[in-house]
Structures are given as structure tokens and as C-alpha cells.
Amino acid sequence: MRSKSNYRWFVVVVFFFFMLLHQADKLLIGPMTTPIMETFDIDEVQMGAVFTGALLVGAILYPIWGYLYDRYARAKLLALASLIWGTTTWISAVAPTYPFFLASRASTGVDDSSYPGLFSLIADYFSPAVRGKIYGILQLTQPLGYMLGLILAMIMSSLIGWRGIYYLTGSLGILLAFIIFFGIREAPRGRSEPELANIEHIGIYRFNKKIALDLFKKRSLLFLFAQGFIGVFPWNVITYWFFRYLETERNFSSEALLTTMAPTIVILAIGYFLGGAIGDYFFRRSLRGRMAVSLTGVLTGAILLSITMSVPVGNQSQFSVMLFFTALFIPFSSANVIATVYDITLPEVRSTALAVQYFIENGGAALAPLIAGIIARATNLHTAILTICVAAWLIASLLLAFTAVYVPKDIQTLRDQLHERAEIEMASSSA
């Protein structure tokens, strides 16, 4: 039991570094936007198309990856995704023209849809009661990856250029592909569910078309899908445009950018883990607990961002302090949404369920950077960021409230299904 417990933490560590370096590679383009625009002599709309291209490719491939993860060995597919990440990043680094760069960056979206299998595999190593914290730990990689990308862009771009940085991150992706392929073992689907935990040998469960279609009969899941469509708009706008906003409209120097964004990203990372941990705490007391925490984070984030953006341009200190508070709350829902998807779906369709969630999220929000670029050209980035973020979070909060209404029934339905499955397994073992 001890070795199994230790091994599952080894899996978490490997996946943490996979996600950290993958996020750094993916989000590097934010802090490197200006030099890339200068290299190809392009404007905000053309750069917005670069952001949107990768997001669209990733969104389109989510259902395909989801099916493959539920049908085949997830660990081997994750190794393949890492190999694709490294290869496509190398291709981006050698792009000689804007059209080639646009196409090559779009191709990097192929591996961006790999996370449903990762989270599904983790779910089979950890019980529902602690998944929020584990997902919160793994999602630290998004802000920390952004910070790593920021540091690479600020320190190394002058030495090796943005192309050299992509050579480096691409090589790390290829290295991790080998580590995952040879180091990560597959876990039986459903192994960590309380109803199946004491059964020595459980059946092999794989993708089932009927069960997958039944996902669309779960009301709480439908509301989660709907909030996902609008809820990721702010993340894509902030990720791809906030750095340039600080540079061009708030007149932040390179030093001020680093001293403001580095602690902001650390606080954002804390928010991911804190949101997941608080969600676990309230989930053990109420089946609506995760959604209550998510709703609180989204509404508070919208209010605090409005206050932050209203700080006068010349007052960088006050702006930075308010940005810190905003960063703490806006990721509260992230780990809780993933955990809730798995709280209401059977193990053999969990990758598919989360892939549909991400498909809807990215399918809608893929246009966000381009829309923000269009609004920014007509007005400014301040208007683009504030309008899109606040409107999206207010709509998402309403949809999360509806999710909270229906989620207890769907959770109980899943527990009944797993209990039934456990009885069948026990009867089969006795026979």
C-alpha cells in the first residue's frame, strides 16, 4: 500500500512538470507578443489570429482525444501528446514568414487538448474527497508556467531570441515524452471510487457510446458546459493581451512588468490550490459545496477586476495591489469544475466528458483574443479586456448557480450506479 501511495505521487510530480513546461511553452507567446509582431511586421488583428488559430485547433480535437483516452491507454497517449508538443514547437521556431508562423502555431493546438486524459488518469489514483486539492496542485502549473514563460522571455529573449526559446521548450517536450512513456503506468478505470475501492479485481471499463450520450441528459453537466462556453473568454483575453496592455497603455517598464506580474502569478497559483482545497472542504459538507466556492470566486473576481482597471494610469502601486487581490479569486472555480465533472460521470467516459467541456470552452473562447484585438483597434485594450471579462464572468456566475441546483441529484445517481457495479463485481468474484 505504501509503495502504491508513493507511486501515485510520482505520477503527480511527472504530470506537474509536464503541465508546467507545456503551459510555459503555450503561454510564452503572451510576453513575446511584441517581438513576434515586430519580426513579422503585423498588427493586433493578425496577432489575434495567431492566438485564435491554436485555440481553434485544440478545441476541434478535444472530442477526438477524449474518445481515444477512454478507449485506449491514457499514459501512452499522453506521451504521444508530449512528443507532438515538442515537434510542433520546433516547427514554429523555424517559421520564416507570418503565414507559415500562423499555420505552425495553429498546429501546436493539437497537443493542447491532451489534459482530459491526464485528469482522468489522476482520478483513478485519488478519491473524490481529495481530487479538488490534487487538481488545484496540477493547475498551479498554468500561472507558474506563465511566470516561467515570462522569465524566459524577459531574461533569455535578448540572448537567444524568441526562436531560441521555442527550441528550448520544444526539446523539453520531447524529453518528457520519453519519461511519460517509460515511467507512467495505467490505472484501472474507477479504481479509486469508494464503492469499488475494496474490490480486489474490478472489470475493465472502456468507452461506451450509450453512456457517453447519456452525459447530455445530466442537467448539472449541461449547465457546466454552458458556463464553460462563456467562462473561458476572460482567461484567453488576459493570457494573450494583458502583458501588452501593461506595456502600451499603463506604461510599465520591463522592470515594473516583472515586479508586478511575478507576484501576481504566484498569488494566482495560490488561488488555484486554495479554490480546490476549499471546494473539497465544503463538498464534504454539502454536495453543492464546489459550486458555491466557484460562484464566489467568479463574482468576486469580476468586482475586483472592475476596481483594478479603474485605478488611474499613473498609480502603478495601487494598481498592482488591486491586481494581487483579483488574482487570488479568479481561479477558484477551475479545479472545482473539473472535480464536479468527475463527481457526476462514470469512469469510462470521464475523458470524453471533460473533453466535451473543454471543447465547448475553447470553441467559444477561441475567438476571444481576436475579438479583443478588434475591439482594441477600434478603442483600446483597456475597454476590450474589461468589457469581455466582466460580462463573461457575470453570465458564468448565473450558470454556475443553476449547476448548483441540479448537481446533488446527478452525484447521487453516479454513486448509485457505482454501488450497483460493485455488487455485480462482488457477485462475479464469489461465483
Structure explained in plain terms:
This protein is mainly alpha-helical. The mean pLDDT is 86. It has helices at residues 2-27, 33-40, 44-71, 74-93, 98-107, 109-112, 115-123, 131-138, 141-183, 209-214, 219-231, 233-248, 254-283, 289-309, 316-329, 332-343, 350-365, 368-378, 381-430. Helices cover 80% and strands 0% of the residues. The chain has 19 helices and no strands. It has one domain (2-430): Up-down Bundle (Growth Hormone, Chain: A), CATH 1.20.1250.
Characterize this entry briefly.
The protein has helices at 2-27, 33-40, 44-71, 74-93, 98-107, 109-112, 115-123, 131-138, 141-183, 209-214, 219-231, 233-248, 254-283, 289-309, 316-329, 332-343, 350-365, 368-378, 381-430.
SSE map:
Blueprint: H1 2-27, H2 33-40, H3 44-71, H4 74-93, H5 98-107, H6 109-112, H7 115-123, H8 131-138, H9 141-183, H10 209-214, H11 219-231, H12 233-248, H13 254-283, H14 289-309, H15 316-329, H16 332-343, H17 350-365, H18 368-378, H19 381-430
Helix pairs in contact: 1-9, 3-5, 3-17, 3-18, 4-5, 4-7, 4-9, 7-17, 8-13, 8-16, 9-13, 11-17, 11-19, 12-18, 12-19, 13-14, 13-15, 13-16, 14-15, 14-16, 14-19, 18-19
